[in-house]
Please model this.
Amino acid sequence: MADRNIPITGGCHCGAIRYEASSPPTTGGLCHCRDCQRSTGSAFEALAMFPQDEFVFIKGKPKLYRPSAIMEKYFCPNCGSQLTDRYLVPVSTELHPNMVWVHIGTLDDPEIAPIEDHYGVESQLSWVKFDDGLPRVRCDEDPELAAAFASSEAGEE
Ligand SMILES: [Zn+2]
Ligand SMILES: [Zn+2]
Model:
């Protein structure tokens, strides 16, 4: 494991947006779901979780995008790099408003982020092969997440 210098820093591709975290990531994972594929334009999304109150944007003003009533994403309005995802309602201890998921590729040292599971594996592309033995979860196997999305959709007019 690479050493974890605090604060942990990162930012977007063009340098307009910078952030820092005052504690190391608590966990991380890969999400293969269709939403993450579409929003990143990639095969999967790699995310590291930080406590929201230890994470701050220190340069520039990222743009907010709300893909659903229960999630917010921030990205650079100039270069388009996606920076963070955060749930707006408590779904679980990991998917909670007091946690922010940072896109690992935007970290200055992406190696500091631990990867501990695969999510959304029902949409994992056939040519994406991992031999890491990590837990694999389908989105529809997570009843708390399914309930959160269902209630957010019910609340939308
Ligand atoms: Zn940028
Ligand atoms: Zn996803």
Notes: The helical segments are 34-40, 143-155. Residues 31, 33, 35-36, 45, 120 surround zinc ion (ligand 2) (CB under 6 Å). The longest strand covers residues 45-51. Residues 59 and 147 are 36 Å apart (CA to CA).
